[in-house]
Design goal:
Shape: globular
Number of strands: 10
Distance between the termini: 24 Å
Structural class: alpha/beta
CATH topology of the largest domain: Rossmann fold
Oligomer: single chain
Helix content: 25-40%
Bound molecules: adenosine-5'-triphosphate
CATH superfamily of the largest domain: P-loop containing nucleotide triphosphate hydrolases
Strand order of the largest sheet: 6-7-8-3-9-10
Radius of gyration: 17 Å
Largest sheet: 6 strands, mixed
Number of domains: 2
Order of helices and strands: EEEHEEEHHHEHEEE
Length: 221
Protein backbone atom coordinates (compact mmCIF):
# COMPACT_ATOMS: atom_id res chain seq x y z
CA UNK A 1 0.00 0.00 0.00
CA UNK A 2 1.07 3.55 -0.73
CA UNK A 3 0.32 5.78 2.24
CA UNK A 4 0.46 9.56 1.97
CA UNK A 5 0.23 11.00 5.47
CA UNK A 6 -0.14 14.77 5.86
CA UNK A 7 2.42 15.38 3.12
CA UNK A 8 2.77 19.16 2.99
CA UNK A 9 4.21 21.14 0.09
CA UNK A 10 4.54 24.93 -0.01
CA UNK A 11 3.82 26.46 -3.42
CA UNK A 12 3.01 30.06 -4.32
CA UNK A 13 2.70 30.95 -0.61
CA UNK A 14 -0.01 28.33 -0.17
CA UNK A 15 0.39 25.00 1.57
CA UNK A 16 -0.94 21.84 -0.05
CA UNK A 17 -1.52 19.05 2.46
CA UNK A 18 -2.25 15.57 1.11
CA UNK A 19 -3.43 12.39 2.84
CA UNK A 20 -4.67 9.20 1.16
CA UNK A 21 -3.98 5.50 0.81
CA UNK A 22 -3.71 3.39 -2.31
CA UNK A 23 -3.72 -0.42 -2.09
CA UNK A 24 -0.87 -2.21 -3.91
CA UNK A 25 -1.79 -3.33 -7.42
CA UNK A 26 -4.50 -0.71 -7.90
CA UNK A 27 -4.85 1.56 -10.92
CA UNK A 28 -5.88 4.97 -9.58
CA UNK A 29 -6.96 8.00 -11.62
CA UNK A 30 -5.95 11.36 -10.13
CA UNK A 31 -8.42 14.11 -11.01
CA UNK A 32 -9.13 17.71 -10.02
CA UNK A 33 -9.33 21.12 -11.62
CA UNK A 34 -6.34 22.82 -13.21
CA UNK A 35 -3.79 24.18 -10.73
CA UNK A 36 -5.25 22.28 -7.77
CA UNK A 37 -2.01 20.33 -7.20
CA UNK A 38 -2.06 17.00 -9.07
CA UNK A 39 1.44 17.33 -10.58
CA UNK A 40 2.70 18.72 -7.27
CA UNK A 41 1.60 15.53 -5.49
CA UNK A 42 3.33 13.28 -8.02
CA UNK A 43 6.52 15.36 -7.91
CA UNK A 44 6.50 15.17 -4.11
CA UNK A 45 6.08 11.37 -4.18
CA UNK A 46 9.03 11.03 -6.61
CA UNK A 47 11.16 13.34 -4.45
CA UNK A 48 11.57 16.04 -7.09
CA UNK A 49 9.79 18.49 -4.77
CA UNK A 50 10.69 18.61 -1.08
CA UNK A 51 7.91 18.24 1.49
CA UNK A 52 7.98 20.44 4.58
CA UNK A 53 6.26 17.80 6.72
CA UNK A 54 4.35 14.53 6.57
CA UNK A 55 5.28 10.99 5.62
CA UNK A 56 5.28 8.68 2.61
CA UNK A 57 5.20 4.91 3.07
CA UNK A 58 5.30 2.00 0.68
CA UNK A 59 4.29 -1.40 2.14
CA UNK A 60 4.72 0.11 5.61
CA UNK A 61 8.26 1.46 5.02
CA UNK A 62 8.97 5.18 5.02
CA UNK A 63 10.61 6.54 1.89
CA UNK A 64 10.12 10.31 2.15
CA UNK A 65 13.71 10.71 3.38
CA UNK A 66 15.15 8.75 0.42
CA UNK A 67 16.70 10.33 -2.67
CA UNK A 68 14.56 10.14 -5.84
CA UNK A 69 16.68 7.24 -7.16
CA UNK A 70 16.20 5.22 -3.98
CA UNK A 71 12.42 5.59 -3.92
CA UNK A 72 10.15 2.71 -5.06
CA UNK A 73 8.79 5.03 -7.74
CA UNK A 74 9.16 5.80 -11.43
CA UNK A 75 7.38 8.62 -13.24
CA UNK A 76 6.30 9.20 -16.83
CA UNK A 77 5.93 12.86 -17.75
CA UNK A 78 3.84 14.38 -20.53
CA UNK A 79 7.06 15.63 -22.15
CA UNK A 80 9.03 12.42 -22.53
CA UNK A 81 12.48 13.76 -21.56
CA UNK A 82 14.22 11.72 -24.26
CA UNK A 83 17.86 12.54 -25.04
CA UNK A 84 17.72 13.53 -28.68
CA UNK A 85 21.32 12.72 -29.70
CA UNK A 86 21.13 9.16 -28.32
CA UNK A 87 19.28 6.28 -30.02
CA UNK A 88 16.11 4.73 -28.62
CA UNK A 89 17.95 1.72 -27.15
CA UNK A 90 20.33 3.96 -25.17
CA UNK A 91 17.49 6.18 -24.03
CA UNK A 92 15.70 3.16 -22.58
CA UNK A 93 18.86 1.50 -21.21
CA UNK A 94 19.86 4.68 -19.35
CA UNK A 95 16.69 4.35 -17.29
CA UNK A 96 17.88 0.93 -16.14
CA UNK A 97 21.60 1.54 -15.67
CA UNK A 98 23.55 4.84 -15.55
CA UNK A 99 26.16 3.35 -17.92
CA UNK A 100 23.46 1.96 -20.30
CA UNK A 101 25.26 -1.42 -20.04
CA UNK A 102 22.63 -4.10 -19.47
CA UNK A 103 22.87 -7.63 -18.13
CA UNK A 104 21.64 -10.45 -20.34
CA UNK A 105 18.45 -10.60 -18.28
CA UNK A 106 17.89 -6.85 -18.61
CA UNK A 107 18.42 -7.10 -22.37
CA UNK A 108 15.82 -9.87 -22.55
CA UNK A 109 13.33 -7.78 -20.59
CA UNK A 110 14.02 -4.79 -22.84
CA UNK A 111 13.36 -6.95 -25.88
CA UNK A 112 10.07 -8.26 -24.43
CA UNK A 113 8.74 -4.88 -23.33
CA UNK A 114 9.69 -3.04 -26.52
CA UNK A 115 8.15 -5.83 -28.58
CA UNK A 116 4.89 -5.56 -26.62
CA UNK A 117 4.92 -1.77 -27.06
CA UNK A 118 5.63 -2.19 -30.82
CA UNK A 119 8.88 -0.21 -30.69
CA UNK A 120 11.37 -3.09 -31.01
CA UNK A 121 12.06 -2.11 -34.62
CA UNK A 122 12.87 1.43 -33.53
CA UNK A 123 15.73 0.70 -31.12
CA UNK A 124 18.43 2.09 -33.42
CA UNK A 125 16.42 5.19 -34.41
CA UNK A 126 16.91 8.68 -33.04
CA UNK A 127 14.00 10.06 -30.97
CA UNK A 128 13.60 12.96 -33.43
CA UNK A 129 12.48 10.52 -36.14
CA UNK A 130 9.60 9.13 -34.05
CA UNK A 131 5.94 10.12 -33.86
CA UNK A 132 4.46 11.47 -30.62
CA UNK A 133 2.89 8.09 -29.81
CA UNK A 134 6.14 6.22 -30.47
CA UNK A 135 8.12 8.64 -28.29
CA UNK A 136 5.65 8.20 -25.45
CA UNK A 137 5.90 4.40 -25.73
CA UNK A 138 9.72 4.67 -25.58
CA UNK A 139 9.41 6.72 -22.40
CA UNK A 140 6.91 4.18 -20.99
CA UNK A 141 9.30 1.30 -21.77
CA UNK A 142 12.06 3.13 -19.90
CA UNK A 143 9.79 3.51 -16.86
CA UNK A 144 8.61 -0.12 -16.91
CA UNK A 145 12.12 -1.55 -17.15
CA UNK A 146 13.21 0.34 -14.04
CA UNK A 147 11.18 -2.28 -12.16
CA UNK A 148 9.87 0.07 -9.49
CA UNK A 149 6.56 -1.00 -7.96
CA UNK A 150 4.90 2.43 -8.18
CA UNK A 151 4.32 3.99 -11.60
CA UNK A 152 3.26 7.65 -11.66
CA UNK A 153 1.87 9.03 -14.91
CA UNK A 154 1.33 12.78 -15.33
CA UNK A 155 -1.12 13.22 -18.23
CA UNK A 156 1.15 10.93 -20.22
CA UNK A 157 -0.90 10.64 -23.37
CA UNK A 158 -2.70 14.00 -23.48
CA UNK A 159 -0.80 15.18 -26.57
CA UNK A 160 -2.01 12.15 -28.57
CA UNK A 161 -5.20 11.90 -30.61
CA UNK A 162 -8.15 10.22 -28.82
CA UNK A 163 -7.74 6.83 -30.56
CA UNK A 164 -4.03 6.59 -29.83
CA UNK A 165 -4.60 7.88 -26.30
CA UNK A 166 -7.08 5.08 -25.69
CA UNK A 167 -4.71 2.45 -27.11
CA UNK A 168 -1.84 3.68 -24.94
CA UNK A 169 -4.07 3.60 -21.86
CA UNK A 170 -5.17 0.01 -22.55
CA UNK A 171 -1.56 -1.02 -23.11
CA UNK A 172 -0.46 0.66 -19.88
CA UNK A 173 -3.23 -1.18 -18.05
CA UNK A 174 -2.22 -4.51 -19.57
CA UNK A 175 1.44 -3.99 -18.61
CA UNK A 176 0.42 -2.77 -15.15
CA UNK A 177 -1.39 -6.08 -14.61
CA UNK A 178 1.49 -8.12 -16.07
CA UNK A 179 4.13 -6.41 -13.89
CA UNK A 180 1.87 -6.14 -10.82
CA UNK A 181 2.37 -2.37 -10.63
CA UNK A 182 0.51 0.21 -8.59
CA UNK A 183 -0.42 3.14 -10.80
CA UNK A 184 -1.37 6.76 -10.12
CA UNK A 185 -2.41 8.49 -13.35
CA UNK A 186 -3.30 12.18 -13.71
CA UNK A 187 -6.13 12.70 -16.15
CA UNK A 188 -8.52 15.44 -17.19
CA UNK A 189 -10.71 12.78 -18.83
CA UNK A 190 -11.86 10.43 -16.02
CA UNK A 191 -14.44 8.87 -18.36
CA UNK A 192 -11.55 7.59 -20.50
CA UNK A 193 -10.20 5.46 -17.66
CA UNK A 194 -13.59 4.28 -16.37
CA UNK A 195 -13.03 0.79 -17.79
CA UNK A 196 -9.63 0.33 -16.13
CA UNK A 197 -9.45 2.42 -12.94
CA UNK A 198 -9.92 0.66 -9.59
CA UNK A 199 -10.34 3.98 -7.82
CA UNK A 200 -10.15 7.76 -8.10
CA UNK A 201 -8.33 10.35 -6.04
CA UNK A 202 -10.07 13.68 -6.58
CA UNK A 203 -8.02 16.61 -5.30
CA UNK A 204 -9.72 19.72 -3.95
CA UNK A 205 -8.37 23.16 -3.06
CA UNK A 206 -5.61 22.89 -0.46
CA UNK A 207 -4.79 19.33 -1.45
CA UNK A 208 -7.69 17.52 0.24
CA UNK A 209 -8.16 14.17 -1.50
CA UNK A 210 -11.54 12.50 -1.91
CA UNK A 211 -10.92 8.79 -2.43
CA UNK A 212 -13.54 6.95 -4.47
CA UNK A 213 -13.42 3.24 -5.17
CA UNK A 214 -14.90 1.93 -8.35
CA UNK A 215 -16.93 -1.23 -7.72
CA UNK A 216 -15.37 -3.98 -9.83
CA UNK A 217 -18.67 -4.89 -11.47
CA UNK A 218 -18.74 -1.36 -12.95
CA UNK A 219 -15.39 -1.84 -14.62
CA UNK A 220 -16.23 -2.67 -18.20
CA UNK A 221 -13.81 -5.34 -19.34
N1 LIG B 1 7.35 25.32 -10.91
C1 LIG B 1 6.49 25.91 -10.09
N2 LIG B 1 6.88 26.87 -9.24
C2 LIG B 1 6.01 27.44 -8.39
N3 LIG B 1 4.72 27.13 -8.31
C3 LIG B 1 4.26 26.21 -9.13
C4 LIG B 1 5.11 25.52 -10.06
N4 LIG B 1 4.36 24.62 -10.74
C5 LIG B 1 3.11 24.73 -10.26
N5 LIG B 1 3.04 25.67 -9.29
C6 LIG B 1 1.84 26.08 -8.54
O1 LIG B 1 1.46 24.99 -7.71
C7 LIG B 1 0.04 24.87 -7.67
C8 LIG B 1 -0.34 23.46 -8.11
O2 LIG B 1 0.07 23.28 -9.47
P1 LIG B 1 0.06 21.85 -10.18
O3 LIG B 1 0.84 21.99 -11.46
O4 LIG B 1 0.47 20.83 -9.22
O5 LIG B 1 -1.49 21.68 -10.51
P2 LIG B 1 -2.23 20.61 -11.45
O6 LIG B 1 -3.44 20.19 -10.70
O7 LIG B 1 -1.27 19.54 -11.85
O8 LIG B 1 -2.62 21.51 -12.70
P3 LIG B 1 -2.88 21.12 -14.24
O9 LIG B 1 -4.08 20.24 -14.26
O10 LIG B 1 -3.13 22.44 -14.88
O11 LIG B 1 -1.61 20.47 -14.74
C9 LIG B 1 -0.51 25.98 -8.57
O12 LIG B 1 -0.85 27.07 -7.74
C10 LIG B 1 0.65 26.32 -9.45
O13 LIG B 1 0.59 27.69 -9.83
Amino acid sequence: MLAVEGLTIKRNQQALCYSAQLPAGHFCALTGSSGVGKSTLLEAITGLLPATSGRLLWQGERFDQDTPGQRPVTMLFQQQNLIEHLDVFTNIALGVSPSAKLTVQQQQSLQQVTERLAILELLSCSPASLSGGQRQRVALARCLLRQKPLLLLDEPFSALDPTLRHECLLLTHELQQQFGLTVLLVTHFPEEVASIADCYWHIREGGQIDVMSQPHEQKKK
